[in-house]
Design goal:
The complex is a heterodimer of chains A (252) and B (188).
Chain A: H1 3-15, H2 22-31, H3 34-47, H4 61-83, H5 88-94, H6 104-128, E1 135-140, E2 149-155, E3 160-166, E4 173-174, E5 177-178, E6 180-187, E7 193-198, E8 200-201, E9 207-213, E10 221-228, E11 239-244
Antiparallel strand pairs in A: 1-2, 2-3, 3-9, 4-5, 6-7, 6-10, 8-9, 10-11
Helix pairs in contact in A: 1-2, 1-3, 5-6
Chain B: H1 5-13, H2 17-39, H3 42-57, H4 70-86, H5 98-102, H6 111-118, H7 121-129, H8 133-143, H9 149-156, H10 160-180
The chains are: A alpha+beta (252), B mainly alpha (188).
Chain lengths: 252, 188
Amino acid sequence: MTCDDADLLLAVSAVGPLETGEAASLAGHLRGCPRCRAIGAEYRQIADVLPLAAEQVEPSPEVRSRLLAQVYADASGQRLAGRTRPPLARRLWARIPARRWITVAGALGTAAATAAAAAAALVAHGRTGTASAPVTVRACGSAANTGACGVLTYDPASQHSSLIVSGLPAIPSSDGRPAATYEVWLVRADHSVVPAAYLTLNPSGTSYDAALEGDLTQFAVVAATREPAGGSTLPTGAEVLHLDLRGAAGSR
Amino acid sequence: MTLPDSRVVDLIAQASPEGMEVLYDRYGRLAYSLALRVLGDSAAAEDVVQESFLAIWRRSTTYQAERGSVRAWLCAIVHHRALDRLRGRTGRARDELPLETAIPTTRLSDTWEAVADDLEREDIRRALAELPDEQRQTIELAYWGGYSQSEISALMRVPLGTVKGRTRMALRKLRDSLEKRGLQWSAP
């Protein structure tokens, strides 16, 4: 296959399926041809704008409701499954064959050894695994009693955090600009405060989010307040969200 | 700072339902519009949107940042599922574009962000409308109709090589037209 043949197929594959056998031939050529790989990426970039040409139509609210009902049901099922796992002793007991009482003593010995191994593994995991596992903190309510609920997910490894807040009152606009802003603060145990981010309203208008950077283990609380447009250097408005990070380690 | 799309996908990978809410609220409308354009049926389009988002949630398809933006990835999933439904395909829907298999190592830039920042939808429609009729029809039959090049060749009664040539010319002209309208392509 020549580069010109590949160029033609790359254009075709950016917008639709290739004919039988063409994909394999093209893949073979691309493995040894970085120039054609770059051309293929360029065609893909052009094709990527095509969905924007479709007339934008709002789906019915039921699509969102059905989807999220399923998603939350899945999520609660996963959490429930995590919570309802029988204790180790009961699981070990269940593994002892029925009516083989002679094996009970041996099984208890095995259980003791297994429990010791599990404890050792847990300690090791605490040293290595748990420390870097993402931590999630959820809370609803605040001093201002806005009814807002927030979920903060902190990844200690990357020190990236994601904050998603629902139920916040909409901020009215004046001349097309919001009249106020929701600002996020990191609060230390000594009550000193660091401005962290502004909450951004999602296109659907149903929730706000923000990305936070840095080591959150240095802070006791993540809070949000309503501030004048453009934000403040220190909190001046009512607190609309309060997430207590103390004791959050390990909560998932 | 707004939560980047890649961070939203990370949340979903950590089984955060709130992450799914954000993803849907950002792209549900776009996904539905795309599916509706392909299928022309609102109920079928809604099904495709729900299936696509659930596939992401249940991790039957995973995002790879090196292959492009979250939006482009999501649109690819919706597009292929919609085409599968249009053509009555059964079984597991395709989640990957053929080219994604063919180009294993190319880093795609975040086209969507550039488009969102620099272009209006109307610019894209105008750029498409400016294509010669036969080129625009070729692109539309392939992308929105899911027709293969040989099927388009039969439909338009032109040789297969002509269809492929028109496809390539259409994409090149589309690129030039969008660049004139201010789109800055990121280097691959």
